[in-house]
Amino acid sequence: MFNKILFATTASPASDDAAHVAFDLAKKYEAEMKVFHAFGLPSRGFSSIVKDVRTGEEAMNDTDYANWVLEEMKTTYEKQSENVKKLEFATTAGVAHTEILRTARKDDVDLIVMGAHTRQEDVGATRYRSIVGSTMQKVAKGAKCPVLIVSRPCTTCFWYFSNVVFCTDFSKAADSAFKFAFKVANFIGCKLYMFHSLDMSALASGKVMSQEEIEEKIAEAKKKIEKRYVSQMGDFDNYEIEVLEGIPYVEIVKYSRKVNGDLIIMAHHTREVDPEKALLGSTVEQVVLRASCPVASVNRPDKVDEAE
């Protein structure tokens, strides 16, 4: 399922939840794993001073400092590294999201695993502001492979997942997310829940629909799921379809909780725009912040089509 995994970390407690899932994945699939940390560079001009994203402190970027951070990373993940067959630790100086994407591209990884934020003290702040970390947003936007975002402790690990929730708005981007969701469910042998929320938010409705209209649209959406996705699933019959009306991110989180979802898989964005220009969709952003399980953001079909 996964041959190469990039775990983008700050090697701080803020990355612990993501580390748990990343190392479990590497062990399960005997995948090559790179544990990667990028020091931040000043925004203007050349400098040998870097900003450590773990602490926010400035440090001299030289070989001694880089080696010290590498050793610290190895110590931090020493216990979790056991039984990972091919493991590499790496650091570099640069803009974090740029270096993560560059490394993912160079190593041709199948999956990036990271947290929703970079600093532990930002957890409450980001949720209060209802936004996720900028590095995660930019990585999810630019990545050609799925990005698994872990923002809370995961009570199960990837190989014990039994309920995968795929959420669709029927966009082109959602088609790639479906391919990934189906491959995961089929490979693991778990149940696939396919969910669509009829958007009843003030921004989307523009008018008040009658109950008959709502029920008609729900029926249409269920038929659309059957035609668009179920038709690709062959003999796989371990699935359920659900369509509910409401505010999409609220309904997704509620539905995932109801079916004990272990993993939510969504498209990175919902609008039909160039992935290079697409901002992280507000729905997936809110799901990332509120869901009790990891969320996989899928932006492009490239690596999804290759995954076996």
UniProtKB/TrEMBL annotation:
CDD domains: USP-like (cd00293). Pfam families: Usp. It comes from Desulfonema limicola. Belongs to the universal stress protein A family. It comes from the Bacteria. Residues 1-150, 162-297 form the UspA domain. This is Universal stress protein A.
